């Protein structure tokens, strides 16, 4: 079952030993606060150098870099939507972030990937809503991609962790 290959954990995404971690990046890809800043600090300056060559990323898209000093071999940078009350296609753009990341994972035959809670920090997307969108996308990928052996959702705080656990339980029943 798909839930056997999906885990929700509380922790630090920069410590995950996986093929790729996902960075909830801003459109410049040049670092910022939250998860983005933590990944850039942990990976070291070579990540910023590579990101400069990528010339940014549009909301809903994703781009791949090496992981440098991270335990993960790669970083998939995706730009989530800023929450504007649900009136500017935020749900569809967030779902597109996950699909874009999974497209890269398939292209590179990644067997394991770790995600943060995209757009729920500074971008203000409600965690309850974002977690359902994320888990639906993860379920669809796990059901169609046998090569992907493990997805981890790495939650920074307990309320986010609880919300993702609820989302998995709801979609598994």
CATH class assignment: Alpha Beta
- Helix % is 40-55%
The name CATH uses for the topology is Leucine Aminopeptidase, subunit E, domain 1
CATH architecture: 3-Layer(aba) Sandwich
Structural class estimated from helices and strands:
alpha/beta
Mean pLDDT: 97
Spatial extent as radius of gyration: 15 Å
Order of helices and strands: EEHHEEHEHEH
Largest sheet: 6 strands, mixed
Number of strands: 6
Q: How much strand?
A: 15-25%
Strand order of the largest sheet: 1-6-5-2-4-3
Name the poorly predicted regions: none
Distance between the termini: 12 Å
Shape: globular
Within CATH, the superfamily carries the name Leucine Aminopeptidase, subunit E, domain 1
Total of DSSP H or I helical runs spanning 4+ residues: 5
Number of spatially distinct domains: 1
